[in-house]
Amino acid sequence: MKLVDQWQAIEKSLPEGWESVRLTLTTEQAGDLPRAAQVLGPINAGKVGSTLVFGVQRAAGPQGAQTALRLFGRLDQERTWCLLEQSAVQVGAATAPEVGGAAGAARSTASVASSWDAALAPLPSDWTDLLCELEIESSTLLDRTALLCAPLNPARSGSRLVFTFRCSGRSGYGVSVPMARRCFERLDHDGIPGTTRVLRVLSDTDNVDTQGPVWLVGGKTL
Question: What is the CATH topology of the domain spanning 103-202?
């Protein structure tokens, strides 16, 4: 089935009021993946293993459904045969499925970016180095989260659905606060729920011929 037809079938199956959908694309021939990535570059397709992962929005725009349809058509014309699969969909608040209890309501409205703002709010004004973590809700979202948050240099340890990362408030090793927030906005845009936390904080450090302080946690250098 052509890629355009696959997309139209997925689009028809989406719930009423859908806002964005996350898709996974696999090329029939492994050697065609780079070309598919090039064509789908305008909608920010990212390589995860042997697949491409990207989001499509219902609204018009660079990642809108019409843009995606046009790019899918290009691949069909080039006879780059692909399999398109839906992995997640975000529905508007007015039509989102109800989740029982206050905790469920909090999960459905929580923003990763806002959790980052909340984590930074109580810190002293002279903080310079942070060790942080990002926790997500599903193992199926690990690859996509790592891709969207690549500037964080996220690291995993153990079986928890958590990435650790460092943040720098001044200089040295670690992502900047604005870049970290931009990564979390990407997760919000993709409908990936998560929570950020500050695990360690240092204030007024001075890097002398180093990239910053080192934390030893559980026998590991972070």
Answer: Alpha-Beta Plaits (3.30.70)
